[in-house]
What does this fold into?
Amino acid sequence: MNAFRLAGDMTHLLSVVVLLLKIHTIKSCAGISLKTQELYALVFAARYLDLFIHFISLYNTVMKLVFLASSFSIVWYMRRHKIVRRTYDKDHDTFRHHFLVLPCLALALLINERFTFREVMWAFSIYLEAVAILPQLVLLQRTRNIDNLTGQYVFFLGAYRVLYILNWIYRYFTEPHFVHWISWVAGIVQTLLYADFFYYYIMSWKNNVKLELPA
Amino acid sequence: AAGDIVKDEL
It folds into this structure.
């Protein structure tokens, strides 16, 4: 495992920790999109179907379990926890996320590495992850006061994607047989979705003003 | 085969 990959996984983990901190400690999910969180839970469930079939490493297994458990518990908190759910900004989180699922499934049936159940589900998870951030970005645009933890959460998620691209470039040159075009293309699309957010995030940080996305 | 490449990323 190279340094970019490890750094990418760590920023991904950090984003989850920041979100859980906000939800578990501050008991607030203000500014967080339940739609995006539900999509992530679906992404991990679809991608990690081989969890108990293919053992890669202890690191791999533990990280998969962490992402599965955290994504489902975040959804649970936002839907069921009696204090947290009251802070959910339902009125602004209106993205029709169900309409993302079917096209991703259709695309996975058409474009996959092999036409088997697990490979189709893997491709589906890659496509869905690429667009899963959209409800969150829309909600941020509609949020007047984006708190620091929410901003940091999205920033770390975006950083994880950038680091994964650097990891692929590194692997391309060091492991000639390592080419997953599906994840590369979807990953680049996913990262581009953050470009706008990154711009405003860095500007607010540089100028030391509160983060706000133009509508 | 290409499909046999281990998917070791998260």
Observations:
- Residues 17 and 153 of chain A are 9 Å apart (CA to CA).
